[in-house]
Amino acid sequence: MSDDRLFAVKMRAARAGEHISGAERVVPAHDIPALAAALAERALHHAKGNPDEIHLKAEVAGEIVHLEALPVSTHVTQTPEEGRAVAARLLAGAGITRIDEIMARFDETYAMRGAMLLDADTLERLEPDRARGVRATYMDAASPEKSRQARPSRTGGEDACKKNHFAEAVVLATKVANAPGIVGEICVSDDPDYVTGYVATKEIGYCRITTIKRKGDPCGGRIFLYRGPREKVAETIRFLQEQCVLVDCMPDCPPAPLAPAVAQERDPPAGGSGVSPLLDEALADELREAADQGLLRVCRVRPEGMISFASNDYQNLAADPRLKEAACAAIQRHGAGSGASRLVTGTLPEHARLERHLASFKGTEDAVVWATGYMANVGTISALVGKGDAVFSDALNHASIIDGCRLSRADVFVYRHGDMDDLARQLDASGPRRRKLVVSDAVFSMDGDLLDLPAFLAACRRAGAVSMIDEAHATGVLGATGRGLTEHFGCKPDIILGTLSKALGSEGGFVCASRIVCDYLRNRSRSFIFSTAPGPGAMAAADAALSILEAEPGRASALRAKAARFVAALNEAGVACATQSAIVPIPVGDERTACAVSAALECAGVLIPAIRYPTVARGAARLRAAVDIGKSDADLRRAAVLLSAALRMPT
Ligand SMILES: Cc1ncc(COP(=O)(O)O)c(C=O)c1O
Questions:
Q1: Going by CA atoms, what residue is nearest to atom 16 of ligand 1?
Q2: Which pLDDT value is given to residue 253?
Q3: What is the dihedral of CA 471, 473, 474, 475, to 10 degrees?
Q4: Is 276 known to be catalytic?
Q5: Ligand 1, residues at Cβ distance < 6 Å
Q6: pLDDT (0 to 100) of residue 94
Q7: Could you identify the atom of ligand 1 that is nearest to the CA of residue 445?
């Protein structure tokens, strides 16, 4: 009778009570005899010596979770110091900063049967049994070929052995990276003959580092880094030690470590990889330097289950069922993408409908949409002014305005932030021009303060300049019904630009202006003409968001009241800050301190990103809290108290 059950098979070998070798497999019953023989063989021939105990255990696997293997990358390093610097850079993205102190803990992991579990920030040990550590068990590669490849063979030479270790390490790292609360893992080979190691997180994947320790050094092991409440540590340990995991989509074992970069440059591989190691080296230096200054950026997957002040989805519309439904219906009708530029065959009914709706919402004759707000700024400014013209830009304007000014090749005059006298002076000093364009954020994205629109328009009028404001953070936030800064002050510039990606919960950028201006932009804006039109789903979602703001006109004032309550709670907790919008900046100054405060808050379950150079000036780092309409008063108070405590902690 056939037995279809899966068994978790484990081998552990030790000498004089000290761990030498171990392995894990999840296999069908009929594979157990051959596997047991292979694992025993492996235990008997380990570089760390002959075991005097070999434990083989097979038990029926419980409920199985399937996980996708972490992506694998290789980082060639020549010295342990370089390897550690690479590890530090890679882990900085997970907010793991005390890498030297963590690496020093490998002195304690030698001969530990499991891994050390450390609090990623305080470096406190969290395992109940420190001699044993935490063992990641009950896991294997899911695909039959990879499982077979991963198994030791009696005849397999050194190569087969390496493949075993690679596959096993990827399986383990994948399980560990997916364990609740684990933010990273560092592994250093405990084999004196190997100098390799890896660091892994869900975001960066499995990053092999070719030299991370000195040859002959027997110290090594694994350190798992945890971030979260103490009461949830037990859940993490349970997942690591008891949850049966099969890892899908196992990558192939990468080739042996590359030769040193300089040697490769002299003797490039046939066909070429297309990547210059010299370029990699130069860029890696720059990245290291950025990391040293607390300026390294890493794209992290958004953490779940936090009180988040990180999103600009001010009206909580991105996940509103009405937007989702509208987007799905549009995608069902027209597909996921629009297939071409608007001027070719890319214009769909959703684009036309949204443009009409934006124009009526903002009270202008017409509107134009782009795929992003960034493209709208770059494409509008560079279309409206050119060589010989003059463009005037507030010193704290958004990067997309700055880039639009640069791209236009007009003379750029940067006036002091919010200083209308300085603007007027510079307008006068610029002399006669074919065209003068003055551009300003309506709400300044990193400071949350407002443009004095009446004074701005007066300065533009006096100088005969075209006025343009960017309502990215004003639409859905300011004015009695959320129509923006224009509604707040009751006056309008020549051009109102905005984005669909913030309070409107979708994606895309727009300009609302006269029919002539809009037609001109459709003819001259290069980011409109030479780019595929935004997808119908995003357009329909934004259209639905506008309808919601129209049907529920009290939303903007409700949002502002939340922001005001957050500021009041912060002030009460001793944190000096203010806002006129939904953006609450909390000044810190030093970049590393801002990152440390943000990381400490994240540990406590509150997400408030640190904003650093070049988004703001050097030494003007801050935390930027974006308040959304969904925050409860309790969340606002809790975040304020935690933020105040984090700011007071020694760094
Ligand atoms: C003031 C301002 N303008 C434009 C943009 C760009 O908008 P998008 O994210 O849609 O490209 C942003 C935000 O990213 C912004 O803050």
A1: 445
A2: 67
A3: 80
A4: no
A5: 372-374, 377, 398, 400, 441, 445, 470, 472-473, 499, 501, 509
A6: 78
A7: 16
Q: Is the pLDDT of residue 70 over 90?
A: yes
Atom of ligand 1 nearest to the CA of 499: 10
**Domain at 555-647: CATH code:** 3.90.1150.10
The residue type found at 327 is A
Paired strand residues for 198: 187, 208
Three-state SS for 97? coil
Helix (H), strand (E) at residue 591: helix 591-603
Spatial distance between the Cα atoms of 299 and 304, rounded to a whole number of angstroms: 15
Distance CA 190, CA 168 (A): 15
- The closest of 535, 551, 543, 554 to 325, measured between CA atoms, is 543
Question: CA 396 to CA 499: how far, in whole Å?
Answer: 18
Q: What is the DSSP string of 380-421?
A: HHHHH--TT-EEEEETT--HHHHHHHHHHTSEEEEEPTT-HH
Tokens of 495: 């051009």
* pTM for this model (two decimals): 0.64
pLDDT digits (tens, 9 = 90+) for 123-172: 999 999 888 899 999 999 986 544 444 333 333 333 333 336 788 899 99
Distance between CA atoms of 247 and 171, rounded to whole angstroms?
6
In the chain, % of residues over pLDDT 90: 63
pLDDT at 258 over 80: no
Catalytic residue among 502, 506, 525, 531: 502
Sign of the alpha-carbon dihedral angle for 121, 123, 126, 132? positive
Q: Which of 445, 478, 497, 583 to mutate to test the pocket of ligand 1 (most atoms within 8 A of CB)?
A: 445
Q: Domain limits of the chain?
A: 6-63, 65-292, 321-551, 555-647
In sequence order, what DSSP letters do the residues of 260-302 get, joined into one string?
A: PHHHHHHSPPTT--S--HHHHHHHHHHHHHHHHTT-----PPP
Q: Spell out the residues 6+ positions from residue 194 whose beta carbon is closer than 8 angstroms to its own.
A: none
Name the CATH architecture for the domain at 321-551. 3-Layer(aba) Sandwich (3.40)
For 487-537, the pLDDT digits (tens) are: 999 999 999 999 999 999 999 999 999 999 999 999 999 999 999 999 999
User: Does the pLDDT at position 191 exceed 70?
Assistant: yes
Residues of the chain by 3-state class (helix, strand, coil), percent to 5: 40, 20, 40
- pLDDT above 90 (res 78): no
Q: In what helix (H) or strand (E) does residue 606 lie, and over which residues does it extend?
A: strand 606-607
Q: Which helix (H) or strand (E) holds 548?
A: helix 536-551
Cα–Cα distance measured from residue 144 to residue 611, given in angstroms and rounded to the nearest whole number: 47
Instruction: Spot the catalytic one: 48, 163, 357, 473.
Output: 473
- Please confirm, yes or no, whether 502 is among the known catalytic residues: yes
pLDDT in tens, 546-567: 999 999 999 999 999 999 999 9
Per DSSP, the three-state class of 210 is coil
